[in-house]
Amino acid sequence: MALLELRGVSKYFGSLAALDNVNLEVHQGELVGLVGPNGSGKTTLFNVITGIYRPTSGQIFYDGRNITGLRPDQIATRGLVRTFQSNIVFREATVLENVARACYLYARTNAWWAFFNTRAYRESERKIMQRAEELLEFWELGDVRNHVADGLSHGHQRRLGLAIAAAADPKLLLLDEPVSGMSGEEITVVMKHAQKLADMGITIVLVEHHVKTVVGFCQRLVALDYGRKIGDGKPKEVTAQKDVIAAYLGTEEVA
Amino acid sequence: MDSQKTKSLVPVLVVVVVAFALPLFVKQPFVLSLIIPAFIYSVVAMGWALIVRTGQFSMGQAAFMTIGAYISALSNIGWHLSPWITVLLAGFAAAAVALVLGMVVLRLGGIFFAIVTLGFGEIVRVVAMNWTDVTKGVYGLIPRPLSISIGGWSPNFVVSKVPYYYTSLVLLVIAALVFARIDRSNLGRIFRSVASNGSLSEHLGIYLMKYRVMAFTVAAFFAGIAGALFSHYLLFVGPTLFGLPESIMSLIMCTVGGLGSAVAGPIMGAMLLSISGDYLTSLLQGGKALVFGLLVVVIVFYLPGGLVDLKRHVRRVMDRVRGRASG
């Protein structure tokens, strides 16, 4: 059984088809790359899966359950977590505070008990801080832990965005252009961490313009064009498809 | 970390001790009559601050004070329940109303929510004014004063203001402990997440409505108790007792005290504004409005962080003065 399944998912904005009858299966442990030119519907697909939009038609199944139309928080609670293309963080908070906030699902013990019982509350607080520290170390954000998120360098901010997503205890992680705007060196660092997450058993779907990154990391590529799936298979095969190349025609990415 | 906590605890303890000891040295009823409302409004202001800290703006605190005051008076007069019980009941009644209202209205964003709470306040006023069978309209209700009788000890709540002073002070301390605890706990962290970025919080599994409604309800609970206590102190409840001016007061008190603060800011703002406002009104009619207006302008221009920021601000000014003197 697939971990994530999209059946005939379409999303129309007025008469514009942002997604057109997309069928997709992602299995546990896979590393799937989602490629396509600008406007092909990649982010819309993520938005529909995570509950920001309701699909105009079609259904979405996660872990065997129908999650179509659920709220984003309900979907995140089930272990389906995403990052944002624009890299959303808690701007006014420190890096450490950002990650601590992101540990919400991890911290969800008995809130009432922890409120009244000082010992339980202190224990729960200690566990959150410990987890936040572990995450900071994993994503190499230790030395900026007390910096305000808004003032971070681009690379640091993107890693923070990933740390936040990782903190939410994902089973399936949707990464929306996690390395955009990064230098080659920074890309390597991030992809190294993404690989570590994959090694821990997290299923990853990665939207990325930079096809080289995607081909190197992903076992499977799904290509979109104008909201329709035009390719689904091994990276080498999909990037060789005539229609995939044509969709990218005029851009530098596929070479 | 712990020595830091002890350091900030000492001034708080000093203030609390002074507050409890005050009536031993200050006996004038006039002074106490200035402080008691300040204690009560501090509680309401802390509630308003909690709502703000989830990113929402309520103009309804006064409405919940009114609801609390009427529920307490009605159950006191009508069912002959002890005022202590009715005051507590008032809190739960206000909270129940807030729960229902919040679940419907908090789905609207920012300004719409603010307007609806403002409208709700007006609805409460109109109902209180016109449902004369129950509320006696403008004539209002006269609740019984608080009373305690344990063994031989029976403090006189009618002749002396001192028992009300201690009652409202205890309420303030309890409320402050609750709001401080919320702020420092993970719940406070969740509220901050919700206020900072609702969308991101959602994608981290946080159900926004749950926490917005929670804050709104807790704030209403304390506003209800505050309103009820106030009415048992004034021995009067009327439709215009707490209205739009009182709702706006919460905003001004928290702004003057410091908008980021959960406990210290609202309390300082409420104490300063309520005491100086009432005092000036005793000298000059409309003095309260003058004080509020003036202090808001001063704070916004010279100390935007509010009174909680005063120490840091003074230090900065001193440094600058010192810098100029030496350089």
Task: Tag the structure with descriptive keywords.
heterodimer, A: 255 residues, alpha/beta, six-stranded mixed sheet, four-stranded antiparallel sheet, 10 strands, B: 327 residues, mainly alpha, ABC transporter involved in vitamin B12 uptake, BtuC, 14 helices, 0% strand, globular
Can you describe this structure?
The complex is a heterodimer of chains A (255) and B (327). With 255 residues, chain A is an alpha/beta fold. Helix content of chain A is 40%, strand content 23%. Chain A is built from 11 helices and 10 strands. Chain A is globular and about 60 Å long. The model of chain A has no long low-confidence stretch (mean pLDDT 88). With 327 residues, chain B is mainly alpha-helical. The model of chain B has no long low-confidence stretch (mean pLDDT 89).
SSE order of chain A: EEEHEEHEHHHHHEHEHEEHH
The two chains with the largest interface, and their residue counts, are:
A-B, 33 and 21 residues
- Strand-pairing-aware structural class of chain B: mainly alpha
**Global morphology of chain B:** globular
Please provide the count of β strands of chain A: 10
Uncertain segments of chain B: none
Q: Ends of chain A: how far apart?
A: 35 Å
Question: Could you give a short account of the major beta sheet of chain A?
Answer: 6 strands, mixed
Strand order in the sheet with the most strands of chain A = 6-7-8-3-9-10
Task: List low-confidence stretches of chain A.
Answer: none
Count of beta strands of chain B: 0
For the largest beta-sheet of chain B, the strand count, sense and barrel status come to: none
Principal-axes geometry of chain A comes out as globular
Q: How much strand of chain B?
A: under 5%
Gross CATH architecture of chain B: Orthogonal Bundle
- Predict the CATH topology of chain B: ABC transporter involved in vitamin B12 uptake, BtuC
Overall pLDDT confidence of chain B: 89
**CATH class designation of chain B:** Mainly Alpha
Query: What is the helix fraction of residues of chain A, given as a range?
Result: 40-55%
Structural class of chain A: alpha/beta
Number of structurally distinct domains of chain B: 1
